[in-house]
Automatic annotation (TrEMBL):
<keyword id="KW-0066">ATP synthesis</keyword>
<protein>
    <recommendedName>
        <fullName>ATP synthase gamma chain</fullName>
    </recommendedName>
</protein>
<keyword id="KW-0139">CF(1)</keyword>
<dbReference type="InterPro" id="IPR000131">
    <property type="entry name" value="ATP_synth_F1_gsu"/>
</dbReference>
<dbReference type="Pfam" id="PF00231">
    <property type="entry name" value="ATP-synt"/>
</dbReference>
<dbReference type="InterPro" id="IPR035968">
    <property type="entry name" value="ATP_synth_F1_ATPase_gsu"/>
</dbReference>
<comment type="similarity">
    <text>Belongs to the ATPase gamma chain family.</text>
</comment>
<dbReference type="GO" id="GO:0005524">
    <property type="term" value="F:ATP binding"/>
</dbReference>
<dbReference type="GO" id="GO:0042777">
    <property type="term" value="P:proton motive force-driven plasma membrane ATP synthesis"/>
</dbReference>
<comment type="subunit">
    <text>F-type ATPases have 2 components, CF(1) - the catalytic core - and CF(0) - the membrane proton channel. CF(1) has five subunits: alpha(3), beta(3), gamma(1), delta(1), epsilon(1). CF(0) has three main subunits: a, b and c.</text>
</comment>
<keyword id="KW-0406">Ion transport</keyword>
<dbReference type="GO" id="GO:0045259">
    <property type="term" value="C:proton-transporting ATP synthase complex"/>
</dbReference>
<dbReference type="GO" id="GO:0005886">
    <property type="term" value="C:plasma membrane"/>
</dbReference>
<keyword id="KW-0472">Membrane</keyword>
<keyword id="KW-1003">Cell membrane</keyword>
<comment type="function">
    <text>Produces ATP from ADP in the presence of a proton gradient across the membrane. The gamma chain is believed to be important in regulating ATPase activity and the flow of protons through the CF(0) complex.</text>
</comment>
<keyword id="KW-0813">Transport</keyword>
Amino acid sequence: MAQIREIKRRIKSINNTSKVTHAMELVSAAKMRRSQEAALASRPYTYTLSEILTQVKSRSEKPHTLLTEKESPKQMMILLTSDRGLVAGLNLNLFREIAKLDMKNFQFVVVGKKGQNFTTKTGSDLIASFISDENEPLDLARTLTKVVVDAYANSEVNRVSIMYPDFQSTVKQIPTLTQVLPIEIEKKELPTTNNPLRERSEASQRQTDLLFEPSVDDILESILPHYVLTKIYQAILETKASEHSARMVAMKNATDAANDLVEDLTLAYNQARQEAITKELLDIITAQSAFE
């Protein structure tokens, strides 16, 4: 009888846990949809800005501080992580990639409590940390842009990179290390089928006589900090989409595992209950036979 009560207690406890994980799954699913839409919607703008910067940069002969390499032994890395757990191996995969690097000359600017805990445990040089849930993505991107641009312009570091989980799909997020400064134009391919952005890009590349107002150097002076801002902002959106996707999948797996465990415990409960009933019947039959 004690065994039956223990199984019933475990079934009740697991059912309560599955209700919590299912509720978290639904909340993460709603946040995931919004964050995925934001990340995917901003990608064409980032791509188009890269194309524009390529056109402007090719026509400018004036050196710019954000394009030239600096002489400094230090490097700066922006690490984008989540504030909370329950995201499976999302943060752990980022930390594994960082562990492969020589972290001796790195300075870290961290977004997310998990990244802050990682840099503290590893004894890394942490110069700034931010909580992502307390800041809007664009405001956070502006703050990070000012920090890294000022540090690079003052030759405090020779390179600025950003480590973040690149959103590929709901079940796939790839740890990505991208150079931010000095600026290097990345060639990201967009889908070729019926893509107006790609057709527009190819058409602009065929144009050789372009007029710039104001001058090319003035445009470059304005567009380079904005390009850094856009790149950091896009990485933040990718991180948000990856975080909510990973959490939704993790909570769904936890809910499914809880339901499977409840089924196994229910079967064990029915078996134990049947054994108890059979034993009681045998005792009754044995006692009745003794009186006859």
